[in-house]
């Protein structure tokens, strides 16, 4: 792997931002069982940019969904910033996802009738951020992702890479501690995709956020602080 282009913000003595222990998840259809995770364990330090690689169907999306509280494991624990998310009630889990975790998916999921700025603004409206503060936050985030001049454009007027940048800005709106990105370059051409990982690294630097990205894109893997391999439902540290 290449050396990071910006100084790492990790503190080896800090409490892990993510701690996964003996995580298992099996999907069942009738009598058929498909194990996705068989005891995955790892930690991610605050300020780290960690990539998870694995073949299609290896369980990367399942793992991110479990960490983000979008799914429940059959066994094991997930702690986010010290909190066992399996022990949280539904209201507390909703608050955790809303206030502390940002999600970026392969399909950007923008609202078609809203402009780029309005899409980024949605999470801020949900938590009733005052208008002046909201406008300033949207302006700063669009500038961060290089779209300051595209605030008024709707998704259909933007390229695939620009739409994904808006999605990243929206995920950062409420200043999450953790950003989960699932194959964020999966629908982008190689040149556009190559710009996404430097953007995520800039996010780590400027926003102080921890990033966990699932990908098989070699360009993205090369820029990560660490790479975890997911195979046969288990995670291992990939060699540098």
TrEMBL record:
Protein name: ABC transporter ATP-binding protein
Molecular function terms from GO: ATP binding; ATP hydrolysis activity; transmembrane transporter activity
UniProt keyword annotation of Transport present: yes
Positions of the ABC transporter domain: 18-240
Alphabetized PROSITE patterns for the sequence: ABC_TRANSPORTER_1, ABC_TRANSPORTER_2
Keywords: ATP-binding, Nucleotide-binding, Transport
One annotated Gene Ontology cellular component of this protein: plasma membrane
Listed SUPFAM superfamilies: P-loop containing nucleoside triphosphate hydrolases (SSF52540)
